[in-house]
Amino acid sequence: RASRTPSGRPRPKGGLRQTAFFTSAALFSLFLPRLGDLIGRRRVLAGMLALMAVGCVMAALAGSVPVLFAGRVIQGVSGPTVPLCLIMLRNEVHEPKKYGTLLGVITAVNGGVAGVDSLAGGYLADHHGFSSIFWAMAAVAALATVLVATLTPESVATESAGAESRMDWPGVALLVVSVGAALIALNEAGKLADANWPLVAALFVVTAIAFALFWRTEDRSSHPLVATHHLSQRSTWALLLTTVLTMTGVFAVMNGLIPAFAQDAQAGFGMTAEQSAWWTLIPYALAGLAMGPLAGRLAATHGYGRILRLGLIGAAATLALMLLTLRADSRPLLLAASILIGITYAGVGNIVLNGLGIVLSPKENPGFLPGLNAGAFNLGAGLSFALVYAAQTAAEPADKTSTTGYGAGIITGAALIAAAFVTSFLIPKPVEAEATP
């Protein structure tokens, strides 16, 4: 179902604010991969999935909004599932091309399911009630818990046997407060005209203060969550900046503007929500699923940076094609644009950015960069809805048959992807993860 922009246009509710699940997932992603380095990745992953199942059961049985909210927060523990899987894979597979291919498979399956599960969820809700979705999720999570606990090897970081290898919980608390405040601020800013802007400003102040304290704590700690010299390296900040810019440019356009345009009866195609999914989100996700394994192998063969930049160029060009879609009453063109952004972003950009988080992470702390990169994905998603919709609202004319607002949002997204292309040149080459000629 859709909410409305200030001028009455349809806009998905999920685009206006982060849900409890996504906020929780972002915060748990910051430190659970590092905890896995220390006490065992299989143990942490199995525990995450078990808690996911508990959260699903709680949500299925919820008789009130607070209980449902709590269930969704608990489900968010599963947030760093993919980064942990990729770290475990890296520990077992050392040949670059094979690892790149399998990295692409895991990341693409995670993204590809997102196009199909929306239909499955709709079917379950329509035929068996809303709680059936959570029961199905609980069953899958329980099965995954058993499979991880019984079939995967245990692994820890090499340095975890040292005397100083213990979790930096003060650093965790400060980083969670900093990122959590930023996410809540972005959620609020995404409400645009209805936002509480003094609250947004206050939350960003909290973000800055908490991060400054986090930096000071990490500088003085004998067992930091993230050593400050790692934070200052290009392999860290350039990757995180590129991830944020890429997500900010793509996420709200593909998950908000384009489906809303497809459903817009005055300026767009007037589709139902289900029809819109078939023409946009599902082709997008399935194209990414098909492209992901190939992109991972190409990255290991021809260079992660080179393949990432090809994906970013393709994504920006596809957004330009979407501008033509706004003016042409052509469903095939809408479908083609959705498939192309699925190939270039979901199948290439997203795959390579996830992979870089693994292969650029230092050997003595392999969990820190994948965790921060997962947080960067979530920050970019939240910022995307705030900026892209702000551009749409600012440019939207009184004429509801005009596509000017949609065009402004897409142009904003393309500009951000262009900025990501520039910053991608600052990401160092992961020499050990690329096959030698």
UniProtKB/TrEMBL annotation:
<feature type="transmembrane region" description="Helical">
    <location>
        <begin position="372"/>
        <end position="392"/>
    </location>
</feature>
<dbReference type="GO" id="GO:0022857">
    <property type="term" value="F:transmembrane transporter activity"/>
</dbReference>
<dbReference type="GO" id="GO:0005886">
    <property type="term" value="C:plasma membrane"/>
</dbReference>
<protein>
    <submittedName>
        <fullName>Putative transmembrane efflux protein (MFS)</fullName>
    </submittedName>
</protein>
<keyword id="KW-0046">Antibiotic resistance</keyword>
<dbReference type="Pfam" id="PF07690">
    <property type="entry name" value="MFS_1"/>
</dbReference>
<feature type="transmembrane region" description="Helical">
    <location>
        <begin position="404"/>
        <end position="427"/>
    </location>
</feature>
<dbReference type="InterPro" id="IPR011701">
    <property type="entry name" value="MFS"/>
</dbReference>
<feature type="transmembrane region" description="Helical">
    <location>
        <begin position="307"/>
        <end position="328"/>
    </location>
</feature>
<feature type="transmembrane region" description="Helical">
    <location>
        <begin position="101"/>
        <end position="124"/>
    </location>
</feature>
<feature type="transmembrane region" description="Helical">
    <location>
        <begin position="172"/>
        <end position="189"/>
    </location>
</feature>
<keyword id="KW-0813">Transport</keyword>
<dbReference type="InterPro" id="IPR036259">
    <property type="entry name" value="MFS_trans_sf"/>
</dbReference>
<feature type="transmembrane region" description="Helical">
    <location>
        <begin position="130"/>
        <end position="151"/>
    </location>
</feature>
<keyword id="KW-0812">Transmembrane</keyword>
<keyword id="KW-1003">Cell membrane</keyword>
<feature type="transmembrane region" description="Helical">
    <location>
        <begin position="278"/>
        <end position="300"/>
    </location>
</feature>
<feature type="transmembrane region" description="Helical">
    <location>
        <begin position="195"/>
        <end position="215"/>
    </location>
</feature>
<dbReference type="InterPro" id="IPR020846">
    <property type="entry name" value="MFS_dom"/>
</dbReference>
<feature type="transmembrane region" description="Helical">
    <location>
        <begin position="69"/>
        <end position="89"/>
    </location>
</feature>
<keyword id="KW-0472">Membrane</keyword>
<keyword id="KW-1133">Transmembrane helix</keyword>
<feature type="transmembrane region" description="Helical">
    <location>
        <begin position="44"/>
        <end position="63"/>
    </location>
</feature>
<feature type="transmembrane region" description="Helical">
    <location>
        <begin position="334"/>
        <end position="360"/>
    </location>
</feature>
<dbReference type="GO" id="GO:0046677">
    <property type="term" value="P:response to antibiotic"/>
</dbReference>
<feature type="domain" description="Major facilitator superfamily (MFS) profile">
    <location>
        <begin position="1"/>
        <end position="431"/>
    </location>
</feature>
<feature type="transmembrane region" description="Helical">
    <location>
        <begin position="15"/>
        <end position="32"/>
    </location>
</feature>
<feature type="transmembrane region" description="Helical">
    <location>
        <begin position="236"/>
        <end position="258"/>
    </location>
</feature>
